Amino acid sequence: xxxxxxxxxxxxxxxxxxxxxxxxxxxxxxxxxxxxxxxxxxxxxxxxxxxxxxxxxxxxxxxxxxxxxxxxxxxxxxxxxxxxxxxxxxxxxxxxxxxxxxxxxxxxxxxxxxxxxxxxxxxxxxxxxxxxxxxxxxxxxxxxxxxxxxxxxxxxxxxxxxxxxxxxxxxxxxxxxxxxxxxxxxxxxxxxxxxxx
Length: 197
Hints:
This protein is mostly helical. The protein has one domain (3-190). The protein has helices at 3-22, 26-36, 56-72, 78-101, 107-140, 145-165, 167-196. Helix 2 (26-36) runs parallel beside helix 6 (145-165). The chain is globular, with a radius of gyration of 17 Å.
C-alpha cells in the first residue's frame, strides 16, 4: 500500500471510528453492506482476518444489531444503561474500523494508528455523548434524551457515509465534532458546577 493510499485509508478509518463513538454497530453494518455489494472500489477485505464482514450473515446480524441499538437509545433510562456497555464496545469498534481500513499497510502502522487514533476518537466521542446524555437525564428526567439520540444517529450516519465517499472531508468533520463535543462537555461541567454552588 502506497503512502497516499495509506493516508486515505487512515482518514477513512478515523472517520469510521468516530462514527463508532456515536453508534457501535452502524459503521460495521454500512461497511459490510458496501463490501458485500462491491460499492467500494479500492477496499478489499477478502483473504484477510476481517473476511467475516464480507458475508450475508454479517450484513444481517449487523443490521439487526444496528436497528436494536438505534431503537434502544430512544427508551429513557435504558439509554443510560446501554452506555455502560457501549463505551468499551465503541473503543473496540473504533479500533476495528480503523484497522480494517488500513489492511495491507505495515502492521505496526495499522495497529498503532488503529489503537491510538481509532480507539481514541471513538472513546472521546462516546464518553462525551455519555456526559451529555447524563446531563440531559438529570435535567429532563430522561425525556430530552431522544433529542440527544437523534443527534447521535444523524452524526453517525453522516460520518459513516462521508468516510466511504470522501474520507478527507469526513476526517475533517470528525476532528471538528470531537473538538465541539469536548468544548460542550467542559461548558456543561462549568454550568453544572456553577449551579451546584
